[in-house]
Known about the structure:
The chain is built from twelve helices and 17 strands. Strand 1 (about 1-10) and strand 2 (about 15-25) form a beta hairpin. The longest helix has 13 residues, at about 300-310. About 25% of the residues lie in helices and about 25% in strands. The protein folds into two domains: about 1-160 and about 315-355, Quinone Oxidoreductase, Chain A, domain 1, CATH 3.90.180; about 160-295, Rossmann fold, CATH 3.40.50.720.
Amino acid sequence: xxxxxxxxxxxxxxxxxxxxxxxxxxxxxxxxxxxxxxxxxxxxxxxxxxxxxxxxxxxxxxxxxxxxxxxxxxxxxxxxxxxxxxxxxxxxxxxxxxxxxxxxxxxxxxxxxxxxxxxxxxxxxxxxxxxxxxxxxxxxxxxxxxxxxxxxxxxxxxxxxxxxxxxxxxxxxxxxxxxxxxxxxxxxxxxxxxxxxxxxxxxxxxxxxxxxxxxxxxxxxxxxxxxxxxxxxxxxxxxxxxxxxxxxxxxxxxxxxxxxxxxxxxxxxxxxxxxxxxxxxxxxxxxxxxxxxxxxxxxxxxxxxxxxxxxxxxxxxxxxxxxxxxxxxxxxxxxxxxxxxxxxxxxxxxxxxxx
Length: 355
């Protein structure tokens, strides 16, 4: 066992504060990782503040983890000490159901083990995440990072925001010749624009903020539509092959469904704390449109995404913060006051514990 320094929420109504706990020593197939950077996901806020209703406290959030391997178990073959690696949204699954056999561990029939606030498969303890100085993970759920060392902070959000957008693009065969919409230009949306553009699609960004037009074009969008403008929306009716909806707040889905062509699909990846209004049935059946959802990606696909992003020099646009700024970051995130993802410099954790 090793003592870990961390930041934790002890209730839904109190701020995150310094916290210590015990990590297990590496078992035969385990990898011990010093955490260098951890991205801040909207899911962290939802969970820390109990908005999804199943938080186990104390809660140490964080599932966009990049670090350096410090120790390996005797049975580890994929990694060595000193490697730069990542850990995403899950650290285990049952590994014997059909989804797990198919490399879709995120859809494990028996429930994947979330990197934080998850139930361990064997010990049944609650998992504690990446707002900590180190973590121990089975090698199957550790990812190789081939980006340059100088870019590691901006790699961290790829472990959630990157794979959350990459996976549905792969599932629905996004590529050259397709017209693809991305709804929302936040942590997820900005990655969606970058990745879809790198896949060769004609990308259209939908936003309620006209001021985001220039940013969207720089990120790779070919067009920007202000979704509050009925004329701009009407001009795109029945024209999209695929729309990725990244917005994590309840909103009317019908205006976007009307933009899909015959057999077009809109996939939801944003997870609001309360439901969207139900879409009208006729908007779906008149053009055989599909409304779908997608959850992160399996381990093999996550590795594929990291390699794709390294090849295409794709990184998240980030603002680095110290760990003791996390509550301020949460409040700014609620106001969309970040371009476009906060990442914690975990080197600040030791000083925060000493303060």
